[in-house]
């Protein structure tokens, strides 16, 4: 029989070190759940059901087509009150936040993202309450794109942007993912 032994990590937040157990990709998900049964509804929101066997967190995420970093951030935030990976949270796609809130049994959320996300959250979850941490949450780069500019660029095919093939392929991935998500 194996036992869950949390790996200790020094987590730094606001210049202060915190010594806390964190869940990592190589840990067996069944042992994590056995040690922390309160995680069952959390992982269920991601569509993960019990009967995990000896599979690692990373393997489970691959099987369920989940972003391992996003799942681990949610789990570690849930388990450790002082854990708040601000920079990592900024890298997640808003669709992950919307999906999580939609699947959650909770009815009240504090949202720390671009204000434009609130509309979609309310549309998909009219029975839930969403609160903002502030009134000035917006992405200035997203607000720079104007319909007139898009129209002009399509009509004149200007400005021209030249990318090497490797960069073009990398840039195409998130666009293709957004189009796929939008089609759902």
> Which strand-content bin applies to the residues?
5-15%
Which consecutive residue ranges, at least 5 long each, have pLDDT under 50? 1-18
Largest sheet: 2 strands, antiparallel
Quaternary state of this entry equals: single chain
Provide the spatial order of strands within the biggest beta sheet.
1-2
Layout of SSEs?
Elements: E1 7-13, E2 16-22, H1 29-35, H2 40-44, H3 57-63, H4 68-79, H5 86-89, H6 94-103, E3 108-111, H7 116-124, E4 129-132, H8 140-143, H9 147-156, H10 165-183
Parallel strand pairs: 3-4
Antiparallel strand pairs: 1-2
What does this structure look like?
The chain is 47% helix and 12% strand. The chain is built from ten helices and four strands, in the order E-E-H-H-H-H-H-H-E-H-E-H-H-H. The chain has helices spanning 29-35, 40-44, 57-63, 68-79, 86-89, 94-103, 116-124, 140-143, 147-156, 165-183; strands at residues 7-13, 16-22, 108-111, 129-132. The strands form two sheets. Strands 1-2 form a two-stranded antiparallel sheet. Strands 3-4 form a two-stranded parallel ribbon. Strand 3 (108-111), helix 7 and strand 4 form a beta-alpha-beta unit. The protein is globular.
